[in-house]
Automatic annotation (TrEMBL):
<dbReference type="InterPro" id="IPR022691">
    <property type="entry name" value="Tscrpt_elong_fac_GreA/B_N"/>
</dbReference>
<keyword id="KW-0648">Protein biosynthesis</keyword>
<dbReference type="GO" id="GO:0003677">
    <property type="term" value="F:DNA binding"/>
</dbReference>
<feature type="domain" description="Transcription elongation factor GreA/GreB N-terminal">
    <location>
        <begin position="7"/>
        <end position="72"/>
    </location>
</feature>
<keyword id="KW-0805">Transcription regulation</keyword>
<dbReference type="GO" id="GO:0070063">
    <property type="term" value="F:RNA polymerase binding"/>
</dbReference>
<dbReference type="GO" id="GO:0003746">
    <property type="term" value="F:translation elongation factor activity"/>
</dbReference>
<dbReference type="Pfam" id="PF01272">
    <property type="entry name" value="GreA_GreB"/>
</dbReference>
<dbReference type="InterPro" id="IPR023459">
    <property type="entry name" value="Tscrpt_elong_fac_GreA/B_fam"/>
</dbReference>
<dbReference type="GO" id="GO:0032784">
    <property type="term" value="P:regulation of DNA-templated transcription elongation"/>
</dbReference>
<dbReference type="InterPro" id="IPR036953">
    <property type="entry name" value="GreA/GreB_C_sf"/>
</dbReference>
<feature type="region of interest" description="Disordered">
    <location>
        <begin position="134"/>
        <end position="158"/>
    </location>
</feature>
<keyword id="KW-0251">Elongation factor</keyword>
<feature type="region of interest" description="Disordered">
    <location>
        <begin position="32"/>
        <end position="89"/>
    </location>
</feature>
<feature type="compositionally biased region" description="Low complexity">
    <location>
        <begin position="79"/>
        <end position="89"/>
    </location>
</feature>
<feature type="domain" description="Transcription elongation factor GreA/GreB C-terminal">
    <location>
        <begin position="81"/>
        <end position="151"/>
    </location>
</feature>
<protein>
    <submittedName>
        <fullName>Transcription elongation factor GreA</fullName>
    </submittedName>
</protein>
Length: 158
């Protein structure tokens, strides 16, 4: 997309902040178990200690990555041209006539059934489109299409 950090929608920021909170809690639990033993134990104890240290390093790396993303990524805003962008709420009509409003985000979130990631087939097909356009995209079951009915800000405003 761009050379710099990708914009984050409010939903993406919320998901990252939730993950960061969970990682910090997990890191605190791991840290509490490091260096428990006063005496060096057997090889199994040493291996367990090494595994906890490795877990702490992995958690620290992910925490640093999320903090950097949150700090450096600009807020996503729907395009002022009315075109679909990261952060847009898009109402579409599918081939079968059903209509749905989805929002375009950078990060998958299992708690958000209306999220379409920008790198998914539908998300890629919608980026840059405007209301009234018919959009075709590939699915595991073959080609599908939608009509873009409206493009608005997150939360549904057009």
């Amino acid at each position: 997309m761009t050379a710099g950090p990708e914009p984050l929608s409010a939903a993406d920021r919320t998901a990252l902040n939730r993950e960061l909170s969970e990682l910090r809690a997990e890191r605190a639990k791991v840290a509490a178990t490091l260096g428990d033993a006063d005496e060096p134990g057997d090889r199994a104890d040493q291996a367990d200690e090494l595994q906890r240290a490795t877990d702490a390093e992995r958690l620290d790396a992910r925490i640093d990555e999320i903090e950097e993303t949150l700090r450096d990524s600009p807020d996503a805003r729907p395009s002022s041209t009315g075109a679909v962008g990261v952060g847009s709420a898009v109402t579409v009509r599918f081939d079968d006539g059903t209509e749905s409003t989805v929002h375009i985000g950078e990060l998958a979130d299992a708690d958000d059934p209306g999220l379409v990631t920008a790198d998914s087939p539908l998300g890629r097909a919608l980026l840059g489109r405007t209301a009234g356009e018919d959009v075709s995209y590939a699915t595991p079951l073959g080609r599908s299409s939608v009509t873009v009915l409206s493009v608005g800000a997150p939360g549904g405003g057009s």
